[in-house]
Design goal:
Shape: globular
Largest sheet: none
Structural class: mainly alpha
Number of strands: 0
Radius of gyration: 22 Å
Strand content: under 5%
Length: 499
């Protein structure tokens, strides 16, 4: 299957899309506050005319590029472009202050590339066994798994599990707007026939993430006022050499990113702080961390990139996104007829292998392009907001309209943009609401089929070893929520104290 996937992947068209996707991802990721989730959400509508394989390759390449792009402003202007580059700031910017900005860029490029490659290889070897295990899931287990996914993401994202659950159930409510799948009765479509059959993913995703972000960007006069930024290819290559001489640091960072990335909802912001903290404890000079220690950059960027592959494990094998970006990727899979979950490796093994292999190729493209244009990419962070906002707005409107050639979808996108902005202003995470919209039809379908099988017996959901384990896991998630917040606080306080 891997050889067949390679034949599909290694075409001129796909390779070109990978290079384009990586460059677009780096550019967008280098804009502070414009996350990989937003980037993939904007690109999602433009993949609709593509085949499933080509679309997934393109989005995976954007994911890889955006994940690295956040390191550029983190190194040069003390501002992480994405949440995954937050820990990168701690040592990368002090290096810039010491005149080592180019070296810090070089370290971030190669550490990110190697971490991503190692994680992708690991996932390529493990995805099939994981898929075989997931095949043991029936409708009953899928229903409980969906509830577990909502609970896990609500607990792992943000600082308030109650707000996470509210957002998740709001997503389920939105998913319940179309017609009842069993009776055909109209439910919550408010008289709009465009919502009769299903809730369109693209306007919801683009609105919540991209449009809500524009409300913040529009209030800024410029992304950055620093126009005196100088870099050197020679110093960038010296950063490459530094990474090559420390393979243990890179492998450790990649392993941490892979493991934490596989946990639904944990994401890069958790992984890079954990990796940074462990690297500090293992270092001979821990007192230098937060003051410009290159090992801190390796720890953050190596784990950050590995999360990209790791987060695809629950997304592909279980249908639970491992991060905000993979939540959008999950929507893309469903839009193109690829249903993640227990039957993935049986019904869509080719697509799954193509996605993982595209991560390998995308990381190779990343190191080539990042090295070639790293001197010039930094100018993106100096673009004035009055130029950036209209460009993004045009892209989002075109994308939302192109899906069904419907102005209703455009207005729906703006509506969810306002909803997303209000939620963010009140510290509600957007990830659970997207997960609720995506998992809603799956949870409802599995529940209804299970009730038919059990002849309306609710105890059926508490039978079977896997189902019981999942119920226990849900209880554990709620019990350990205070512990999760405590650990986050510890890592944050350590990083702040070392900065």
């Amino acid at each position: 299957m891997i050889l067949e996937a390679l034949e599909v992947l290694l075409t001129v068209e796909n390779l070109a899309l990978i290079f384009i996707g990586v460059v677009f991802g780096i550019l967008a990721g280098s804009i502070p506050g414009f996350t990989g989730t937003n980037t993939v959400a904007i690109a999602l509508p433009f993949t609709l005319p593509m085949t499933a394989e080509i679309a997934l390759v393109f989005l995976s390449a954007i994911y890889v590029g955006a994940n690295y792009g956040g390191a550029i402003p983190a190194v040069l202007i003390n501002t992480p472009g994405t949440a995954g580059a937050t820990a990168t700031v701690l040592d990368a910017y002090p290096m810039s202050q010491k005149g080592e900005a180019s070296k810090a860029l070089g370290i971030s490029i190669l550490a990110s590339t190697i971490g991503g490659l190692l994680a992708a290889v690991a996932i390529l070897l493990l995805l099939d066994p994981i898929g075989q295990l997931a095949f043991m899931f029936t409708n009953r287990e899928i229903f409980v798994l969906g509830l577990f996914g909502l609970a896990a993401v609500a607990a792992a994202i943000g600082d308030n599990i109650r707000k996470g659950l509210v957002a998740g159930f709001l997503g389920l409510l939105i998913a319940a707007m179309p017609v009842d799948p069993t009776t055909g009765q109209r439910r919550l479509d408010f008289g709009y026939f465009a919502l009769y059959d299903s809730v369109p993913f693209v306007p919801v995703v683009v609105g919540l993430f991209a449009i809500s972000e524009l409300f913040y960007l529009i209030n800024k006069k410029a992304i950055s006022s620093d126009t005196d930024i100088k870099t050197s290819y020679r110093d960038i290559l010296s950063g490459f050499v530094y990474v090559i001489r420390r393979p243990i640091d890179v492998v450790r960072a990649a392993t941490i990113g892979l493991v934490i990335g596989s946990m639904p909802g944990a994401g890069t912001s958790v992984a890079n702080f954990v990796s940074w903290g462990i690297a500090k404890t293992q270092s001979d000079k821990p007192e230098e961390f937060g003051k410009g220690n290159p090992q801190g950059v390796i720890a953050s960027e190596g784990s950050n990139s590995a999360v990209t592959a790791g987060s695809l494990v629950p997304t592909l094998a279980l249908g639970i996104p491992g991060s905000g970006t993979t939540a959008v990727m999950l929507a893309a899979l469903l839009l193109h007829g690829v249903r993640p979950g227990p039957e993935l490796m049986q019904d869509f093994a080719l697509e799954a292998n193509i996605i993982i292999l595209s991560l390998l190729v995308a990381n190779v493209a990343l190191v080539i392009f990042a090295l070639a244009i790293s001197k010039y990419l930094v100018r993106v962070v100096t673009l004035p907001a009055h130029m950036l906002v209209p460009a993004i707005l045009v892209l989002t409107v075109i994308g939302a309209y192109a899906m069904r050639s419907s102005l209703f979808d455009v207005w729906l996108m703006f509506l969810f943009g306002i909803i997303g902005f209000v939620m963010r202003e009140n510290d509600y995470s957007l990830i659970p609401i997207i997960l609720g919209v995506i998992l809603g039809p799956i949870i409802e379908g599995a529940f209804l089929r299970s009730m038919l099988i059990s002849r309306q017996d609710p105890t059926y959901f508490f039978e079977g070893t896997i189902a019981i384990i999942l119920w226990i896991a849900i209880v554990v998630v709620f019990i350990t929520e205070p512990a999760i917040n405590l650990l986050r606080g510890v890592w944050q306080s350590r990083s702040d104290g070392s900065a």
